[in-house]
Design brief:
about 475 residues, mainly alpha, 24 helices, about 0% strand, globular, transmembrane helix, transmembrane transporter activity, L-tartrate/succinate antiporter
Length: about 475
Amino acid sequence: MREYLLKFSPVIITVGMALCPMPEGLTPEGWYFLSIFIGVIVGLIIEPVPAALVGLVGVSVVAVLGLVDSNPTASRNWALSGFSNGVIWLVFSAFMFALGYKKTGLGRRISLILIKYLGRNTLGVGYAIAFSDALLAPFMPSNTARSAGTIYPIVSNIPLMFNSTPDHEPRKIGSYLTWVGIASTCVTSSMFLTALAPNLLAVDLIAQSSGVQISWGQWGKIMIPAMLPLFLLTPWLAYVIYPPTQKNSPEAPAWAAKELEKLGSVSRKELMMLGYAILALFLWIFGKDLGINSTIAAVLVLSLMVLSGVISWDDVISNKSAWNVLVWFATLVAMASGLNKTGVLPWIGTLSAEYLQSMPPASVALFLVLMFFVFHYFFASTTAHTTALMPLFMVTATGLLPAEMIPKVALMLAGSLGLMGIITPYATGPSPIWYGSGFISQARWWFLGLVFGGIYLGSMLILTLFYV
């Protein structure tokens, strides 16, 4: 019985909410749309079916009911609007870049080189893990693929060399490396716009709800300098707060050297992948000045990767993760746009303004960033968090803050998405993988999440105070 209730909870919540008395200020279409939207969010959190299917069901039901537009053709155009969104295809292309790193072996080689030269002591291994993540982050929007799929398989071999397992002396080295692995990827996910797929989704939702456009360069200009000190401190903070008992690791460089020998010399395809990554980064940073859209740049580089054989066309059409994310994000973008089209966002903004209008603008900005971060305790998906809360927080900010502050607050909200992944064992994609290694107990993970979450949140609030 409990299993069925859980499986059908999105439908139960949607129907139950729709049958409740309609709030004053909303049209029937807006209220029913909001009910379906809440049901979709619940579905994304619980996942009784795949997340992409949840989104498809949501837009289909809305379109059939004509809640966004009573005209069938207009309703269809709205339902499919997300698939024409440039950000969605940028995310898709970046997933293919991640595949290129994996298929060519370049990602593994970079990580092993860093361990070889930085891994003589445990703190050095921690920094090697962090730098490996940072080097891959600008080109891999899936932190799950980056951290759990590329970094974790390498790191998981290191504790075994010191006889540190989840059941035998986990604190010797395994627990420390596990925490550095997840903590560093959370920081790099906020450092670069293309380091976390929900960052790109957030940027698009911000543009829809407020008209504010955030480019790769604008993001990097603020977030890279702001996150760099936190990134450099993270392995050391973990070393101090959650220290390993094994301080030296002379075997790690030797092991990495042997693994590099097995890989052999750098292949032509690895060099090509490196060149394409640099080309993509260059176009993302300077493309605006050159008149090149970032999405078109990504598609161009992807095309070159296929034409040159770095990846094959079969790799593209068989990459289930990339296509799944494309459908998932496209439907969520459409649903988020419907919030504005049906009058839900203006209604929420009016209500929020009544409670916060007495606060000075700086306090409102800090409050919004604080609550946006803390609310992630209720989400097991950064994407669901972004879809549910970003439009709400942006419409609140638009109604309460001076126009010149809106772009800055928008960047602070979006920039915190990566950092909030540290707070729970389920807060971001790689968390269950690192937690599942067994080196850190659930109670200890929650405690460390609270400590590091407080540090990360504090850094965002300080940045907000000085930037906004």
